[in-house]
Design the sequence.
């Protein structure tokens, strides 16, 4: 049963109020916001207002204002709110929400125990009152009999009235309410069998907190995650400063209960033994002190096949690791901030000879699987990138492709890149025909930089676009057609030699009828929009700047200009160019004290001016 079922609406709303600030600090809250919008908990206009924000401070402030609005305007939907954000796929993406759900469950357990205690105390009180009334009735009856016997002249000795101690039975002490850990009442109310705890458990060791993954624990893998870093239980114990304990089953606890007790209770946690000490190298691939090692047996045969195909080193997630102990691995992680910093990156700028590109971590599988390196003209596997850059038989993609002056094997040594096993059947290692075609183009839109929604892929270059982001818009009829489609970038590059001779004056270019120069204007706007990587000038600033209209008389943004081009509202090239320049002049006026934003605006303005001169062949 969900914890919301045990709490009243006012209690859920109080819990919401106390945790608004924590929820406003969620990293990358896009999925969180989409979930609220899709369940009609927040209006579309407020959703778009937060989505248009780019800086982290503005996003946090906007998200807090949105939650504050929900608390005041829709408090009756607070139960539905928690039900939406406590879905498993949301909790897996936001660890902060996992902790909030744990906290809410604690309140539920405490409330249940409190209610039981109150009912028990009330029951005891009622029993005592009934016993007291019975004793009083008995005493009155005895006194009546004594008076009757005296009136009749009975010579028998009169009995003494019963004293207070004999009138009432001893009062029972009210039972003290007990909020003990649920483990002590496992037979009645065990939280370890709740659906939420089937996959993971919150754990602590000293002052360190993490999340234990049950499936990884059962396999003997690194199963405790802190932030984005995974640890074995022994590594987590050392990371928490509890090295002297040397017994992770006792030092690591879940909600105050040592893991040893959960392991001993059949069915709660598996009894897995982690092997400590250094891993023995079966085969050394390098002679230096920084050697990377692989295991023998099937793993050895797999590595030989991989070396034949890729001429490099293979390291599968856990088995292919540095020949160091658990303790040494933790010490190295703490002493190498650069490696830890690289682990959080998703895109790496790489070079090979004179060639340059960007390696995308989520597309990387191995040297020959997964087109993970993006150049100006195509997506390539590391081996394909190596062959296009170097014409040498002794070249190795792990050694000759560099990131910040270091070979790629350094990223694998830091566990930032992981080579998939040859038995892996993921979409990168064993793609079907459609997945193979999709690897040739970008995953995100080349204009708005977002991955959500369907994209149309250019058949000439690696770019992809949302149909409504591209200029001109890609119509549904064209999407249903299986013919070849070229984007505006490729069409312009193919025809740029047909746009007249050099030596044109600026005034002459501005006076052109835009109907004759639509391709150039569309190309210029798409290039500018794509260069605005943080999408600062894409949306209407009045949606997220309340005082903008009071300062700027004629707001202008790239999305509005794109709409004007799509609807053919401009008459001349000059009208188009004036609106683009208005975007930057408005920015300079409104952000006079924001030096960082002014630098970005000036950079984009210079970029547009330079491209404008080049496209129209202006002296």
Sequence:
């Amino acid at each position: 049963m969900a914890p919301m079922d045990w709490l009243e609406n006012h209690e859920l709303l109080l819990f919401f109020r106390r945790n608004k600030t924590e929820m406003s600090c969620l990293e990358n809250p896009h999925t969180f916001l989409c979930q609220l919008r899709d369940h009609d908990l927040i209006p579309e206009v407020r959703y778009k207002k937060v989505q248009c924000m780019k800086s982290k401070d503005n996003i946090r402030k906007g998200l807090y204002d949105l939650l504050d609005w929900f608390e005041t305007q829709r408090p009756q939907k607070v139960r539905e709110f928690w039900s939406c954000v406590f879905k498993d796929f949301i909790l897996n993406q936001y660890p902060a929400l996992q902790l909030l759900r744990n906290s809410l469950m604690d309140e539920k357990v405490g409330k249940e125990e409190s209610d039981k205690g109150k009912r028990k105390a009330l029951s005891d009180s009622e029993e005592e009152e009934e016993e007291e009334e019975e004793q009083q009735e008995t005493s009155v009856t005895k006194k009546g009999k004594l008076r009757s016997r005296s009136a009749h002249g009975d010579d028998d000795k009169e009995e003494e009235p019963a004293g207070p101690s004999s009138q009432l039975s001893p009062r029972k002490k009210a039972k003290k309410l007990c909020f003990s850990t649920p483990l002590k009442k496992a037979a009645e109310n065990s939280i370890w069998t709740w659906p939420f705890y089937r996959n993971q458990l919150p754990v602590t060791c000293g002052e360190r907190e993490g999340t234990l993954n049950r499936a990884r624990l059962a396999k003997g893998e690194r199963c405790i995650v802190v932030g984005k870093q995974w640890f074995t239980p022994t590594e987590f114990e050392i990371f928490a400063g509890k090295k002297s304990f040397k017994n992770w089953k006792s030092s690591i606890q879940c909600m105050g209960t040592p893991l040893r007790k959960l392991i001993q209770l059949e069915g709660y946690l598996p009894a897995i033994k982690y092997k400590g000490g250094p891993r023995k190298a079966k085969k050394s691939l390098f002679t230096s002190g920084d050697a990377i090692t692989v295991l023998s047996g099937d793993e050895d045969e797999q590595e030989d096949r991989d070396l034949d195909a890729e001429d490099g080193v293979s390291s599968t997630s856990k088995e292919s690791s540095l020949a160091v102990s658990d303790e040494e691995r933790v010490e190295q992680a703490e002493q190498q901030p650069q490696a830890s910093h690289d682990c959080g990156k998703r895109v790496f700028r790489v070079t090979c000879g004179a060639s340059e590109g960007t390696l995308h971590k989520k597309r990387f599988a191995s040297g020959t699987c997964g087109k993970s390196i993006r150049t100006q003209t195509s997506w390539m596997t590391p081996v394909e990138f190596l062959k296009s850059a170097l014409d040498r038989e002794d070249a190795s993609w792990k050694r000759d492709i560099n990131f910040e002056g270091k070979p790629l094997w350094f990223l694998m040594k830091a566990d930032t890149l992981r080579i998939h096993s040859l038995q892996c059947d993921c979409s990168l290692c064993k793609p079907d025909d459609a997945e193979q075609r999709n690897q040739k183009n970008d995953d995100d839109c080349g204009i708005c930089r977002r991955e959500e929604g369907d994209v149309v892929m250019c058949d000439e270059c690696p770019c992809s676009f949302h149909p409504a982001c591209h200029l001109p818009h890609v119509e549904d009829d064209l999407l249903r057609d299986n013919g070849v489609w070229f984007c505006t970038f490729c069409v312009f590059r193919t025809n740029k030699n047909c746009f007249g001779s050099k030596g044109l004056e600026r005034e002459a270019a501005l006076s052109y009828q835009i109907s004759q120069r639509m391709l150039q204007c569309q190309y210029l706007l798409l290039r500018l929009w794509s260069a605005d990587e943080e999408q600062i000038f894409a949306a209407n600033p009045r949606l997220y700047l309340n005082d903008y209209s009071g300062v700027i008389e004629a707001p202008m943004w790239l999305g509005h200009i794109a709409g004007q081009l799509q609807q053919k509202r401009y008459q001349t090239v000059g009208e188009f160019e004036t609106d683009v320049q208005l975007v930057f002049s408005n920015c300079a006026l409104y952000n006079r004290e924001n030096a960082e934003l002014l630098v970005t605006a000036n950079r984009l303005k210079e970029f547009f001016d330079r491209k404008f001169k080049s496209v129209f062949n202006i002296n």
